[in-house]
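Predict structure. Chain length: 312.
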Amino acid sequence: MLIRVATESDIPQIIELLKISLGESMIPKSEALWRWKHQSNPFGPSPVIVAESDGKLIGIRAFLRWEFSLDGKIKKACRAVDTAVHPDYQGQGIFKKLTLSLIEEMEKEGLDFIYNTPNADSLPGYLKMGWEKWGKLPLKLNFHFNQGKNNHPLNPEPWSKIENIINKVEQESQAVSGLNTHLLPGYLSWRYRDCPLFPYHFISDGESYVLFYRIKEGKMGRELRIADFFTNRELSKKEKNEVKKKLKEAEKLAAARFTSYSGLKYANEKILDLGILPIIPMGPIVTLRQINPLFSPLDQNWNWSLGDLEVF
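Prediction complete.
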């Protein structure tokens, strides 16, 4: 078995291996998704390695590059994402070999840490390889049992409406306290406008705030899922009321049975009013692996948003 760095010509085989190993599940595998995620990422192309046997790809491991801002300094990170082993070769430790090999390469690059949101099946394996549990994100839910049927499908609005506020938010991102995603120029367009998985919508006045959300169908009914909410200054009482009003309008237009807001920002913002139900620890579970011996990610003042951690 040969473990090597993936090349451009491997992409069709990588997509096929992902389909064979994982199926389509909730996220269809495609070259377009792969290129958006691993090549167009503003933080840089993803480090990807593959396992090969007799000229055939039998395993793949990819980390997604990410950057966080802490007190004006940039922390280099990766998110452990796509991985697959051909069914005929599973149970031979290939996943572990690929993961540890890629970690070794990231150590050479001077990475600070790796993070991810594993499911219950993969969590034990990550813990054995040095990952630590940070915990589950808090989740705020607000139910709308009186919403009627959706007769007005939501259509994405022109991105040009929020170019000004996007520029302001990205320019000022390093001044925000805590450990936050580094909103380098182009990040928000890549993350929300260009995402090929599902359409994101926004609520904004175009100048002082922007809220990104998407609509998700589920067993509990239609969900309005808030991914990120940014302001570039303290909002006035009138502006706060305007945000709440626009959110309610979006909920009604989408016929959302409930609204969700997961992350560490809701409790501190006090702008959105999402009802009286308590915040519950039922969001994604986050795990961290220290790479830089001088930087402990587990001890940081995190400011996660769902937009940082949502599976994509």
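Summary: Residues 2-135+286-298 form a domain with the Aminopeptidase fold (CATH 3.40.630.30).
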